[in-house]
Each structure stands twice: as C-alpha cells, then as structure tokens.
Specification:
Number of strands: 6
Number of helices: 3
Distance between the termini: 2 Å
Helix content: 10-25%
C-alpha cells in the first residue's frame, strides 16, 4: 500500500478496503470468467446490493496486504463473495479484516434494469471456490 491509501494518522483509510474488494472481484472476472467481464461493456450489469467490512486490526503505510476472495452464497440472480484481508509479515499472514459483498446480476433494457440469472460462465467459475479463496490480490501499503 502507499501513503495515498492512508489518512493523516498513517493508517489505511476504511474506504480502501471496499476499493480492494472491487479490484479482487474484477480480477477474478477477467481471469476466470472473461466472457462475463466483456459482457459488462454491453447490457449485462453486476449491481452491488450490499457490502460490509469488519476491521480487526489497523494497517499502515508500507505494509503488504493480501486480499482473498471466496464464494459465500449463490442464488438465482445473486452472488455473495467473502473477503479476508491479511497483513503479510515475515512469512506470516495475520487476519486484519473480513468483508462481504453481494451482487445482483441485471440486464440493462430501455425500461431500466431487470434481474437475470447468474451467467453460466460465472457460476462455473465460482464453483471451485465455495470453501477456498478464489483469488488473492497482494497490495503494498
């Protein structure tokens, strides 16, 4: 992480954890479901319905952080992703935060947004990660 991601006190500003959730989710799509990622430029939309983060310890500038995403739940048109944030130090990973984000799959139409089923490619890409992290994204503070 960089100083840009910290506040005046020097710890990481809370909104960055949500930004990292988005980075992790988008990287997963680009690598594991590229057709879904491309569809975002067309009429497909992933609408964030809810997002939260529980902070367990503070992070500071120059620390290395790993964000691990896994599947929490999967419904007809919704997916809940879980995020674990780890401080990496001396070959040890310390859990510093836990997050959750639920998205709804939607289609843009002339009348507005309408719910659609989770695309098959996305459902298939998520399947292996019901218990194990789908992707880890390293960050340096």
């Amino acid at each position: 992480m960089t100083l840009e991601e910290t506040n005046l006190v020097g710890n990481v500003y809370f909104s960055n954890y949500f930004l990292w959730q988005g980075h992790c989710r988008e990287r997963f799509l680009a690598e594991r479901a590229p057709g879904v990622f491309r569809a975002l430029r067309e009429d497909f939309a992933m609408v964030t319905v809810s997002s939260r983060c529980d902070f367990l310890a503070e992070l500071y500038a120059a620390e290395e952080v790993e964000v691990r995403m896994s599947l929490g739940a999967h419904g007809a048109n919704k997916v809940t992703m879980l995020f674990d944030y780890y401080r990496l130090q001396d070959r040890t990973a310390q859990l510093v935060a836990r997050g959750e984000q639920t998205i709804a799959c939607m289609r843009r139409t002339a009348e507005g947004m309408e719910p659609i089923d989770v695309p098959g490619e996305l459902a298939e890409a998520l399947r292996p990660y019901e218990r194990e992290p789908a992707l880890a994204v390293d960050r340096s503070v």
